[in-house]
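Side project, low priority. Logging it here so it doesn't get lost.
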Amino acid sequence: MKWTIQELIKKAKNDNLIDERIDLRNLLKPEIEDLVDILDTDVNGEYYYYQNENLFVFNLHIKTTLVMLCSITLEEVSVDLDFESQLNFSVNYINDDTHIIEGITIDLRPYIFSEILIEKPMRVMIKGAYKKYNDESVELTNEEKEENNPFAKLKN
């Protein structure tokens, strides 16, 4: 899903359809703690080139499956995503919704991945997660409370 600007301009008039299956696993980072895996992503749609504004508009349908961690039990949960997205690219600043093209190529993969991160649920739970949840309460004595209180020195 990477093209040169000239290639996109040339294809815009007669071959502007996109229908690809891409692997985005290499974009997963350890900082995204609840996202374990992303299966192959289907991307299809079309793009347009507006010569007067030097603007590329990609109208995409994105369908994928995420493997996330249950926020209660930390078990893996499959989450299906199926959504529409529009990505705009230009050499010049047009508005905040338009990405600036740096260099001579456009690679949609990182932008598609960021759209998936926006669409993914903030947290997921498996069925019966609360039944498996075990809450352990610890009672502190007054002496332990005083020892662990970071504001204890300020009382005087």
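Brief comment: The mean pLDDT is 90.
Revisit when time allows.
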